[in-house]
Give the backbone structure.
Amino acid sequence: MIHLIDVDPGNWRFGLKVSESQKHYVSDSYAMLARAYAYREQRSRAFVIYNDETPVGMGLYYDLPDLECYDLSQIFIDERHQGRGYGRAATKLILDAMKQDGKYSKVDLCYIEGNDAAKKLYESFGFVEIDRDEDEIIMELVLAK
């Protein structure tokens, strides 16, 4: 069963990574953790995605108070575990956690143009494109109550 565990001193060094062909689209785990630290004042939450006891990916989100929304900054599934529905299951858990938190009623994210898997995943949850910034496509989801 997929579940999220906040990053702690015992679980941040698993060496999770995406395939070489995906590195253009996703930051590595160290850059993600640096971003989590940089956004710690915005309630950043970095987590490891587990399938039962096996770490299969990582993710990060935080508050964007100026835009009154959550920023789903990153989610990735390790190259050895892709194609099994873990990304979809983790995204649902993340969105559920945001709804339960209840601070904001919307979620923003961006993905790099050409990352068709991310686009398809986000659209399946109801995210819609709201803007573009060079090669980044910005999407938004209004959280259902």
About this structure: The chain has a mean pLDDT of 96.
